[in-house]
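Predict structure. Input: Pyruvate dehydrogenase E1 component beta subunit, 338 residues.
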Amino acid sequence: MSSTASAQTGQKAQSLTLVEAIQDGLYTEMSQDDSVVVLGEDVGKNGGVFRATDQLYEEFGEDRVIDTPLAEAGIIGASIGLAQTGMKPVPEMQFMGFMYPAFDQIVSHAARLRSRSQGQYSVPMVIRAPYGGGIRAPEHHSESKEAFFVHEPGLKVVSPSTPYDAKGLLAASIRDPDPVIFLEPKLIYRAFREDVPTKPYQVSLNEAAIRREGSDISVYTWGAMTRPALIAAENLSQSHGIDVEVIDLRTLSPLDIETITDSFKKTGRAAIVHEAPKTGGLGAEIATTIQEEALVHQEAPIKRIAGFDAPMPLHSLEDYYLPQAVRIQDGIRETVDF
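Output follows.
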């Protein structure tokens, strides 16, 4: 349901940024389910480095909003244990680049416990992590390594691009019986506002969103790259008459293969936009899926418009590294003109 639809149904809504929608989503789920707990570095009294947990400590107390040591492996290991005792932990990794010490706990235990126990146990846990570049942060603060976790069976991977989706996807993730990696595009934490219902609601974890309908080419993206993709689509419509369809995946694992392939069957051309390095990125998986499911509809090579195969550079070079609207437009034109 879009924010417009929510207004039409008479739901009360408030205008929120994406990070405010995250905070509201946490508050809403914690209010109606005492088993939901938040833990991480500075999430309590300080309200989180981006203030995503602001006021939760004051409302729910230190037993449910837990400040932890700077020990990512310990945070995730403790969360796995909490999940086994009937709790629904929502640990925060301050930045995606800080997740590497916790990687063993995530892939060796959280992702495998259901399989290891033959379904006897699961890990209802949501690992929140701000990710991506563009905010002039130091090293390790701008990673976009979603492909690491998409590759791991047993994990769901989610990345919202709007405030409405952020709250709804977070609610669905917290209520899911299995571990979810919830990646928050910090570049757009406060970039714009949107009406978000005050009441609880969910956005499905396996449905992509068609942000713009078109007939000439399908553009697949997620997170912070959705906005420049939409800008590129509008620019090309006005300047070259190219009708671009923009698909916001929202959930990266599992992929909404039906929406992906239906769009491609309509347009016959595709471009995939992500800020992660190109090699081994999720774009390759999407391109392969399209060729497996809809090859006979293909009119041109599938274009990947991505970050470069290099560490995220510092400061002003970020603007060159990240796919901006102009680079996206060039990639779309190259595909359409093939």
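The longest strand covers residues 270-277.
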